[in-house]
Amino acid sequence: MMMYLYSYSFMFFFISGVYIFISKYHHFLLMILSLEAMVLSLFVLFMLFLCQFSYEFFLVLLYLTFSVCESALSLSLLVMLIRCHGKDSLLMFDNLW
């Protein structure tokens, strides 16, 4: 019973991350933070699933490796955006979409 409560709370955490990602698309830093919240909630859900069925955890290490690479890439894009334009606002790219 408690495992379902944990999984539902992290599913809510994932859905709230998706909502923030969609609604705050003008600020790149908020998009990065919501993306990291989604990655973290998926990681916890993945660990809960693997612990429940007692599977191997090697795929989790691969997932964490890719999530760290994604974090480093997004932070480097944020630094590049702030150096070029002086802010993290993506309003200047609205004409392209």
UniProtKB/TrEMBL annotation:
Superkingdom of source: Eukaryota
UniProt topology in membrane: Multi-pass membrane protein
Catalytic activity: a ubiquinone + NADH + 5 H(+)(in) = a ubiquinol + NAD(+) + 4 H(+)(out)
GO cellular component: membrane
Transmembrane domains' residue ranges: 6-22, 29-55, 61-82
Keywords for this protein: Membrane, Mitochondrion, NAD, Translocase, Transmembrane, Transmembrane helix
Subcellular location field: Membrane
Keyword NAD (UniProt): yes
Pfam families: Oxidored_q2
GO molecular function: NADH dehydrogenase (ubiquinone) activity
Family: Belongs to the complex I subunit 4L family.
Protein name stated in the entry: NADH-ubiquinone oxidoreductase chain 4L
Organism for this UniProt entry: Curculionoidea sp. 1 KM-2017
Primary gene name: nad4l
